[in-house]
Amino acid sequence: GAGPASGRVGLAARPLDSGQTLTWHAAAQFGTASMIKVAIYAAVLRRARAGRFSLSDPVEVADTDHAGGSGVLAELRPGLRCTVADLCTLMIVVSDNTATNMLVELCGGVAAVNEDFAALGFPGFRLNRTIGMPPPPLAAARDRPGRRPAADAPGSVPGSAGVGPLATVTL
């Protein structure tokens, strides 16, 4: 059997046919981790529908776009060209942090994405910052003069000391 676990749990459910809402700990804030990427995807689609850009628009990954953590773009050389739709796919399918940051910037930054969340009916979602993890050590050192691998404590998430949650949600 399962042993005891610690943590906080919140719940929000609404059957589509009745419109009634069931909540538990609705006023509590919870860190979202990569779940916020689904809401960022909705913000990207909203802006594409509004004509601010097209999902088929080309984008180029710059050296300064690379973010560590999950994903593959940080492992590839700067100059890679793909489309906005490709960035969306990478953000959702492999939780790519570089693609996520590029999409947030394409939408106009953190404040603009938070405005999108409210306009989409998600006022409790809040993106606090872009993903600030340094790229992987090999990617940081490879073909980039002057960049050195991060020197973080073994077993820690690189660049995470003293950093608050990426995003929060209030049910």
Order of helices and strands: EEEHEEHHHEHE
Shape descriptor reads globular
Task: Tell me the β content.
Answer: 5-15%
Number of distinct helices? 5
- Strand count: 7
User: If you average the pLDDT, what whole number results?
Assistant: 84
Main sheet record: 3 strands, antiparallel
The poorly predicted ranges are 145-159
Written overview of the protein:
This protein has helices spanning 36-49, 84-93, 97-106, 110-119, 137-141; strands at 11-13, 22-24, 29-31, 58-60, 81-83, 125-127, 167-170. By secondary structure, it is of the alpha+beta class. The chain has a 3-stranded antiparallel β-sheet with strand order 3-7-6. Helix 1 runs parallel beside helix 3 and helix 2 crosses helix 3. The relative contact order is 0.19.
List key phrases describing it:
single chain; 171 residues; alpha+beta; two-stranded antiparallel sheet; 29% helix; globular
Concise synopsis of the structure shown:
The chain has 171 residues and is an alpha+beta fold.
Topology:
Blueprint: E1 11-13, E2 22-24, E3 29-31, H1 36-49, E4 58-60, E5 81-83, H2 84-93, H3 97-106, H4 110-119, E6 125-127, H5 137-141, E7 167-170
Antiparallel strand pairs: 1-2, 3-7, 4-5, 6-7
